[in-house]
């Protein structure tokens, strides 16, 4: 498995760092691109006590792109909710994500002071992180994201419910990841005991937007107050 790419961050603006948000980019992008995009859409996406990490996915062949090398968290058979997950590819990124979180733990940031989230594929990765690989995270958010039918996330939740709050946001004009895929993901997670909120962004395609990022920021501040 290729190594993670460059790690970018937005430091906490105050004196104390007491919580961390890990924001995963979508397929073919980078941590630097995600950081720039977020800060372009929502001026000053920062917090006095919260550090934001923007990691970069490994460079690896991506089947939906004809096998071309791309910065992706995992491979897919196809961008289709009905396609099966490639479990081997998903499992190969697990250790890297756990190491990111472990490094935060080692500097005094416990799991209940960490939120994971992302855009598109990055949101799916965040769902696997919160509901399969880690325990007791403070929350998980997913923007324009979906899980495949019969996802291993659902199978894990059938065995042990993880009480991690969920925030999902999706544009109703998304032509890559249809909003129905996002809503089906949310409904399935909710049926398995996940508590969360789903926001529809009117006339938004496969993208983040200012309103959605403000919803995410307010939600982060509610779940990770200064201590």
UniProtKB/TrEMBL annotation:
Q: What is its EC number?
A: 3.1.2.22
What range(s) does the Phospholipase/carboxylesterase/thioesterase domain occupy? Answer: 12-223
Q: Which GO terms describe its molecular function?
A: carboxylic ester hydrolase activity; palmitoyl-(protein) hydrolase activity
Q: Which Pfam families match?
A: Abhydrolase_2
Q: What's its top-level EC category? A: hydrolase
Q: Which Gene3D superfamilies does this UniProt record tie to the protein?
A: alpha/beta hydrolase (3.40.50.1820)
Q: Which UniProt keywords apply?
A: Hydrolase
Q: Please give the InterPro entries that the UniProt record associates with this protein.
A: AB_hydrolase_fold, LYPA1-2/EST-like, PLipase/COase/thioEstase
Q: Which GO terms describe its cellular component?
A: cytoplasm
Q: What name does UniProt use for this protein?
A: palmitoyl-protein hydrolase
Natural source organism: Euphydryas editha (Edith's checkerspot)
């Amino acid at each position: 498995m290729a190594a993670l790419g460059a790690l970018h961050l937005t430091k906490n603006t105050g004196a104390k760092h007491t919580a961390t948000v890990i924001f995963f980019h979508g397929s073919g992008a980078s941590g630097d691109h995600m950081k720039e995009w977020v800060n372009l859409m929502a001026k000053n996406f920062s917090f006095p006590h919260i550090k934001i990490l923007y990691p970069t996915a490994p460079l690896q062949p991506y089947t939906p792109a004809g096998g071309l090398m791309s910065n992706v968290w995992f491979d897919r058979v196809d961008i289709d909710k009905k396609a099966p997950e490639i479990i081997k590819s998903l499992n190969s990124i697990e250790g890297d994500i756990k190491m990111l979180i472990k490094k935060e733990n080692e500097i005094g940031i416990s799991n209940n002071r960490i939120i994971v989230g992302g855009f598109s594929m990055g949101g799916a990765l965040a769902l696997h992180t919160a509901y399969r690989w880690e325990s007791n995270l403070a929350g998980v958010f997913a923007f324009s994201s979906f899980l495949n039918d019969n996802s291993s996330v659902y199978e894990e939740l059938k065995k042990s419910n993880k009480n991690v709050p969920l925030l999902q946001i999706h544009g109703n004009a998304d032509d890559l990841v249809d909003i129905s895929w996002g809503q089906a993901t949310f409904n399935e997670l909710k049926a398995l005991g996940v508590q969360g909120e789903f926001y529809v962004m009117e006339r938004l395609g496969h993208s983040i937007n200012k309103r959605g990022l403000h919803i995410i920021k307010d939600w982060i501040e509610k779940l990770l107050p200064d201590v």
